[in-house]
Amino acid sequence: MDEIAVLIPCFNEEITVGKVVRDFKRALPQATVYVYDNNSTDKTVEKAKEAGAIVRYEYQQGKGNVVRRMFQEIEAQCYILVDADDTYPASEAAKMTERVLKYHADMVVGDRLSSTYFKVNKRRFHNSGNRFMRLAVQKLFGGKVRDVMTGYRALSYRFAKTIPVLSRNFEVETELTVYALENNLQVEEIAVAYKERPNGSQSKLSTIRDGISIIKKLLHMFCFYRPGKLWKIVVLVAGFIEIKNARVKKFSNIRENLLHISSGMQVLIALVLIENIHYKNKMDSEARLQNKKIYSEII
Questions:
Q1: For the chain, what is the domain count?
Q2: Are residues 181 and 37 in the same domain?
Q3: pTM of the model
Q4: CA dist., res. 266 & res. 271, Å (int)
């Protein structure tokens, strides 16, 4: 088992991956650096190997699929999960790993939003999108995580080996954050300076397509982890609508409207329950895969 494993998911990052590998090998000389290539068509693999990384592969496209593979295959006391785009400082990695190894944190979030992100970022809607996700997670799940979508985290062994990663793409950051909050794991944050990608390096995140997927993931996890809170919101909204309608409709129609609302809520409850059962089955299946991997390593 490694003491520290640096995990770098990669898709067409030939411009930056070599520097990222070298920076983290210099910042954490005791660490093993893994680059997981996700069907790159450029020289990502060659650049990573030249810089001294161990290169492995995930052939299902998507960052979530890569993270899932990483957590299944790599054994370490502490993990650094970082993007390959050279936007995060390796100089903060030692502080982050110390919080895991010495103080038993399960997740240390590299917080861009409390540092330079809003000044440096130039992509449309990303500033407001990050603010929205921060507020939404705080309101729906509690906790005070300031940067939900960061691509820079330190994680404990028990976190990596117990989370059932079901995300396929960039919604994986939301899944990591919510899982930690909902399972009462020790979450800490360290402010890190953020910088823009270098010239010629292109982001793989689609603002609209991936933004919709991230919001869907957030709502899905809210339905699964907080069904009681969900129904309180539904009942309050339905009640508000009915009170508003009551001002313009006769009393005899109110009872009929309530019956319609009640029927609609029953259908909605049934659909959410079915979806939650399906989601729970997938989580259990993923947990069995993880446990089988751990068991095979032990024997």
A1: 2
A2: yes
A3: 0.83
A4: 9
From 169, 184, 219, give the residue that closes a domain.
219
* Same domain, residue pair 278 and 138: no
Classify residue 194 by its DSSP letter. Answer: -
State which residues form the domain around 251.
Answer: 226-283
Structure tokens at 191: 């402010």
What is the pLDDT tens value at each position of the chain, 299 positions in all?
899 999 999 999 999 999 999 999 999 999 999 999 999 999 999 999 999 999 999 999 999 999 999 999 999 999 999 999 999 999 999 999 999 999 999 999 999 999 999 999 888 889 999 999 999 999 999 888 999 999 999 999 999 999 999 999 999 999 999 999 999 999 999 999 999 998 888 898 898 999 999 999 999 898 888 877 776 776 666 666 655 665 555 555 655 665 556 666 666 666 667 666 756 766 676 666 666 554 444 33
50 to 21, 43, 124: CA distances (angstroms): 10, 11, 35
Q: How far is CA 72 from CA 156, 208, 296, in A?
A: 14, 30, 12
Residue 17 is assigned to a structural domain of this protein: yes
In whole angstroms, how large is the CA radius of gyration of the chain?
22
What is the longest distance spanned by two Cα atoms in the chain?
78
What element of type H or E holds 231? helix 227-246
Could you say which of 219, 237, 253 is where a domain stops? 219
Give the DSSP H or E segment for 256: helix 251-298
Q: Are strands 76-82 and 187-191 parallel, antiparallel or unpaired?
A: unpaired
Specify the residue for token string 């490694």: 2
Q: How far apart are CA 147 and CA 109, in angstroms?
A: 7
